[in-house]
Amino acid sequence: MKQDARTAASSRKKTSPPAAIPDGHAASASPSAFHSYMAAVQLLQQGKFEKSLAVFDKLLPTAPPELIERCKMYMTTCRRQLEKTSLTFLTPEEHYDYAISKLNTGYYEEAREQFTSILEKYPEADYAYYGLAILDAFTGQIQDCLDHLSRAIDLNPRNRLQARVDNDFQNIVDDPRFTELLYPEVP
Fold first, then answer.
1. The domain 92-182: what is its CATH number?
2. Which residues of 156-176 are buried (b: 16+ CB within 10 A; e: fewer)?
């Protein structure tokens, strides 16, 4: 009898317990779907965004409900990362326009990276210093704002006139250092 019980037990198909998704809910996903999901997340963490996106893209149509939103979120992350690395600009001014678009949409760190990237290639780009000054004004970094604006004015004195009427410097107009920078005393 013991022999028959062992044979019957060993001949049964072994099944895996339900996979758990990261937030602790039991997944009704097949183990292969969950493994694909985990592989895609791991690729994303390794910075292999194209491969990760391909796995998520293949998984999405058949993904169980509890993974769909996570897959979409990670796919968006992959696309953003790929967009960052694949950007090419024909002119520094075009690059500046992109940086300003990031600034205007509230992506301040990305905007800072773009302005800095412009200055690495074009250290005399007064408009990039001006953009950094605006960014610093938005983020409350007053001394950095004044330093960047001063450099922009040194490189192109017309920036002084622009800054006088630019509403982006609204939160520092009462700072005496800002006033001195924009309205220097003439000897």
1. 1.25.40.10
2. beebbebbeebebbeebeeee
